[in-house]
Specification:
With about 260 residues, the chain is an alpha/beta fold. Helix content is about 45%, strand content about 15%. It has helices spanning about 25-35, 50-60, 75-90, 110-120, 135-155, 170-180, 190-200, 225-255; strands spanning about 15-20, 40-45, 65-70, 95-100, 125-130, 165-170, 205-210.
Amino acid sequence: MQACNTTRNGAHAPCALIPIYNHKDTIVRTVQSLRAQGLPVVIVDDGSNDATREVLDALALGQADIQLLRLPHNQGKGRALTAGLLAARAAGFTHALQIDADGQHDVADAPRFLAESQTYPQALVCGKPIYDDSVPRARLYGRYVTHVFVWIETLSMAIQDSMCGYRLYPLDATCAEIARKPLPARMDVDTEVAVRLSWRGLPVRNLPTRVIYPENGLSHFRMWRDNLRISAMHTRLLLGMLPRAPRLLWRRVSRREAPCAA
């Protein structure tokens, strides 16, 4: 595998960030694959069970390139992600590659995310999923509803998939947005943070990446509860877009009229 550049003293110092809740059967392979590419790993244990805690303890024991954080009880993906982003920045990293612990994401694509962020260091690099036949059809079609809402909320089609949890954050801008307003606690976090970073003016790069739904995989998405949260989030973001609309529209016009570099 291609090695990732992780020089702390340079301008580009990335790490991988993995929120985890009870994925003891897939976390070891994911972390080992990332480390094989020379990428330090920050793991945030969101109140996992004893079996998962034991696996994480053994994984991190004596490993300087693995930072293990623990939340005292399960608080949700958004809280775990926030804790990890802040910890990564405090540790001196400039970028964090968020990846799921459940084996859905193709770790071999990590160098592509890192290369994209080296070329566009201020950008949010979002995974654009390429699904196989393992994807549940209801989940697949439901994503398109969120896509349309996000295009309205940002007055742009720059974010091609806001729900994919495989993405790379520039930490200074992301942590500044967290300081302005905390991120939501649960599964609505991925879409909301992407929209809010777009509002801040961050450019967005979209990277096609293979996403699978492993057989007998453990999902923490709860259809009714999380869909209600997502509906409330879109209401909140639509209302937030309205006072920003003139600036968002002006940004689009300005970018369209900006002269091309020679």
